[in-house]
Design brief:
heterodimer, A: 94 residues, B: 16-stranded antiparallel β-barrel, three-stranded mixed sheet
Chain lengths: 94, 520
């Protein structure tokens, strides 16, 4: 019975999770971009330097930062909003 | 036309007046010569007729002129209207021309202006397509000088001078914004030949904001070192701390599934994160005491029913606005069965703190391996404490700026690490690197990331490592490390048959390693 309940819960969580993926986020306004950039500039030296030297945004192309920040978000378990702010800052570094 | 009527009326009035005058003259001068009067009258009448005729001709001429003028006036009016229309059209055309000129100017300004980075980025991304990949990773060349003064009882020892090279590319492939594939491949040329290894290969599926599923071969999420500190350009030292080196306390990797994520619980910087995972479980090189933990690709772990579960929690208590630095506190556990029925349990705690140029990190971990046939548990402990200080804010007075510039790139570090275990298996020492050279004690020669010192295999190994890193760029570094091995006496040497021999004392040792590393 417990096993069945656990499976149902797991399936429900998975369903809810994928539902979350399907929802497209509204495009940001320039003001929101600027706010995110400022937050990213504040977080970048803190979050990156806790494991390795913070690398400047100019080192990689924006599309590469998209991938690298996905990798780092997984590895560092970053809060998603913070990962997005750092990505905004790095991509603007071009 | 009006002028003609007026002239006709005028001539008639004149005729009537003349006629009346004639009647009066006839009445007055009736006594004079009627004939003369008549002639006079006739002459006057002829004259009047002639005048009348001239007047009529004049009137007709004037009428024709009036008509002509009227015709001209009409034509002039038509021409004026046409001119007005043409003027309006011209004005409209001029307006259009002005608008077109303004548009051309705007376009010209856009053409002349540099392309905004955002627009260029979007256009470039469209050009690259929705599926994209990139290669990161690291490469390093290394030289090790190991002056081995002695060996563990009866085992080989020698001084070693060795150049090595290692290349570890990481491929990231992103088919959508919620799926990422990551693969790390290692190709090394070491003292015992070349070797290749698949370090990680996994899918990362972002289920939602706070939950990511990782599936595949991955670094053990236990503690900080395997996941976060093992890449060559990230590790401030060339070697691994003893608990994560050749006598590991927990397995270095796993094949299985992870669920992980993080969230902010307080102010900015106050985060919490979790990782839970399950996999094929631990495996060992042999069932004897002290046997080394196998890697995740070992068949021994995948072919048993004993799987593993693990969990790791981290918390960051300091908000960024407090400007007190970044503190990370973590706890991990990893548990599983090996050989189908024997438990392996481990736990550990770790911390990482940095503020400005100072950084400190450390871990404590411990494991218990249930042994078959009622043998006492294989109990291991490991720890390390590492301190470093970047000299980027240190300015020596009365020294040329060039010297200070070099100084700012230096980072001195010190690390103390140790392992306690009941025994070590002699087979592991002989085959620790195992690239070619079967039967020779290849574990006791340097390989990439280890000095090959016999002291590393002591049951109670201790090491002080001093390092001086010179940072050329954030991910390009020339590292220098001096290892002082200070093993303590005690523990057992265990043969492949399980025969146990007390180790006794192990000579101290020291080694120098230098490495040039590029993270890309």
């Amino acid at each position: 019975m417990r096993k069945k309940l656990a499976i149902v819960l797991l399936l429900a969580m998975t369903y809810a999770s994928f539902g979350g993926i399907a929802q497209a986020e509204a495009p940001m306004t320039p003001a929101e971009h600027r706010k995110l950039f400022r937050e990213g500039a504040e977080l970048w030296p803190i979050y990156c330097n806790q494991c390795h030297n913070a690398r400047p945004g100019s080192e990689k192309a924006p599309y590469e930062w998209d991938q690298i920040m996905m990798h780092m978000r997984t590895l560092g378990n970053f809060p998603p909003e913070d990962a997005q702010a750092i990505l905004e800052y790095l991509k603007a570094g071009r | 036309m009006r002028t003609g009527c007026f002239l006709i009326t005028l001539s008639m009035v004149l005729s009537i007046a003349i006629f009346a005058q004639t009647e009066r003259a006839l009445a007055q001068d009736s006594g004079t010569s009627d004939a003369a009067s008549l002639k006079e009258i006739q002459r006057e009448m002829r004259q009047m007729r002639a005048e009348h005729k001239r007047d009529r001709a004049l009137i007709e001429h004037l009428e024709s002129q009036v008509n002509e003028l009227e015709t001209r006036d009409t034509k002039t009016q038509t021409a004026t209207e046409q001119l007005h229309n043409t003027d309006q059209k011209l004005q409209a055309t001029t307006l259009q021309l002005e608008q077109t000129t303004a548009q051309v100017k705007t376009l010209q300004a856009k053409v002349d202006a540099p392309i905004p980075p955002g627009d260029f980025s979007e256009a470039f991304n469209r050009y690259l397509g929705s599926h994209s990949f990139t290669i990161t990773g690291a490469a390093a060349g290394q030289f090790v000088y190991d002056q081995q003064s002695g060996a563990i009882d009866g085992l080989h020892h020698a001084s070693q001078n060795t150049f090595m090279f290692d290349w570890e590319p990481m491929v990231l492939y992103r088919p959508t914004d919620w799926i990422l594939f990551e693969g790390v491949f290692s190709a090394a040329f070491g003292n015992t030949g070349t070797g290749t290894d698949l370090s990680t290969a996994d899918f990362q599926i972002f289920l939602n904001k706070y939950m990511t599923l990782v599936a595949g071969l991955y670094d053990q999420p236990f503690g900080d070192w395997y996941e976060a500190q093992s890449p060559m350009w990230v590790n401030r030292f060339i070697t691994a701390p003893l608990p994560f080196g050749n006598e590991a306390v927990v397995p270095p990797g796993e094949i299985g599934l992870q669920l992980r994520g993080g969230m902010q619980w307080g102010k900015l910087g106050q985060d919490f994160d979790y990782t839970v995972w399950g996999g094929n479980g631990p495996n060992f090189s042999s069932p004897v005491l002290g046997a080394a933990l196998g890697g995740p690709s070992s068949v021994a772990s995948s072919q048993t029913n004993g799987k593993s579960i693990g969990a790791r929690l981290r918390i960051y208590p300091l908000p960024i606005e407090a400007e007190m630095g970044r503190l990370e506190l973590g706890a991990s556990t990893y548990n599983g069965k090996w050989m189908n029925g024997n438990w392996f349990n481990s736990w550990g705690v770790d911390f990482n703190y940095f503020k400005d140029s100072f950084q400190a990190r450390g871990e404590w971990l411990e494991s218990y391996r249930q042994m078959p046939s009622g043998m006492a548990a294989d109990h291991r402990q490991g720890w390390y404490l590492q301190l470093g200080y970047m000299l980027n804010n240190v300015n020596v007075p009365q020294v040329p700026n060039l010297v200070n510039d070099y100084l700012h790139r230096l980072q001195p570090l010190v690390r103390y690490s140790g392992v306690n275990q009941r025994g070590v298996a002699t087979d592991d020492i002989a085959g620790a690197t195992g690239v070619g050279l079967g039967g020779t004690q290849v574990g006791l020669v340097p390989d990439f990331g280890i000095s090959g010192s016999p002291a590393l295999y002591a049951p109670h190994a201790r090491e002080v490592a001093l390092a001086l890193d010179y940072w050329i760029a954030p991910s390009i570094v020339w590292q220098n490390e001096f290892d002082i091995e200070l093993p303590e006496a005690g523990g057992l040497l265990v043969s492949p048959t399980g025969a146990e021999t007390p180790v006794g004392s192990v000579p101290n040792d020291h080694a120098f390693l230098t490495q040039f590393t590029i993270g890309f």
